[in-house]
Amino acid sequence: MRNGSSLNESSGLPGVLITLFCKASIELHKDAITPGQKVLLHDDLLATGGTIMASAELIKLTGAELVGFTSLVELDFLNAREKLKKYSDNIITLANY
User: What pLDDT is stored for residue 37 in this prediction?
Assistant: First the structure.
């Protein structure tokens, strides 16, 4: 990812974008991530995993290597960790509830 680049929920970002639609849409600048680049996805709150899984799908579309996930807080009872394991077993959270 370019410095300062980020995945955003549909926000009208300028430039050429890759957009993935699920329950919400996630956008990424087409040139933000290059094939083979290593990417670590971070979310402040890992709840259902929907947003971060959509982000993982976008990363796959770029040809980059998804090396893992981090989050500040994980809501264990929603079982997002199990859903993320299809992308990476490297899942780190600071606090679990």
Answer: 96
Q: Output the pTM of the full model.
A: 0.75
Three-state secondary-structure class, residue 81: helix
User: What is the CB neighbour count within 10 angstroms for residue 36?
Assistant: 9
Helix (H, G, I), strand (E, B) or coil at 62: helix
Query: Would you give the end-to-end CA distance of the chain in angstroms?
Result: 31
Task: Give φ, ψ of 33 to 5 degrees.
Answer: -130, 135
Intervals of the chain under pLDDT 50: 1-4
User: Which residue from 3, 1, 92, 7 is spatially nearest to 38, judged by alpha carbons?
Assistant: 1
Structure-token pair, residue 66: 């998804």
